[in-house]
Amino acid sequence: MQKEKFGEKDFQTIVGNLLRYGVWISLSVAFIGGIVYLIGHSSDIENYSVFHENDRNIFEVISAIYNGVLQGNGESIIFFGIILLFLTPVFRVLLSLFSFLLEKDYLYVVITLIVIVIILISVSFGFSH
Question: Interior CA angle at 27 toward 79 and 113, to 5°?
């Protein structure tokens, strides 16, 4: 019996499932967060004429969202769903890096590493103003 190697078709199936389930999971989490938020804040009236800027770094934001999710805060659960939606294509890039390393295609490994660095820089500077 011959063992089959990990092929391009297998990789495309994994990537397709990652993207599909990542979107559905993040949508479900955000939807559940919306329901939780509406249960606790259904009669609140928001004042959209005033803008409140939150000047925090990404670690403070993620810590606040994590603590809010643990406490069952609907707004934090919505934000967690949005973070999952953001991380879905990031995981796809990381999975591509792993695939290119397995294939020993070092040109695409370097290109993928550049994309990862660009993502990290944009997230870092996006929260640091």
Answer: 75
Residue with tokens 């939807």: 31
* Amino acid at position 51, single letter: F
Cα–Cα distance for residue pair 48/53, rounded to 1 Å: 13
Distance CA 79, CA 60 (A): 13
**23-79 residue pLDDT tens:** 999 999 999 999 999 998 877 787 778 887 777 777 788 899 999 999 999 999 999
Six-digit token string for 87:
């991380």
* Type and span of the H or E element at 2: none
According to DSSP, residue 6 is labeled P
* pLDDT tens-digit series, residues 74-99: 999 999 999 999 899 889 999 888 88
Is 77:30 a contact under the CB 8 Å cutoff? yes
Kindly report whether the global pTM for this prediction surpasses the value 0.70. Answer: yes
CA distance 86 to 111: 20
Q: Which DSSP helix (H) or strand (E) runs through 121?
A: helix 106-128
The C-alpha atoms of residue 83 and residue 62 are separated, in whole angstroms, by 9
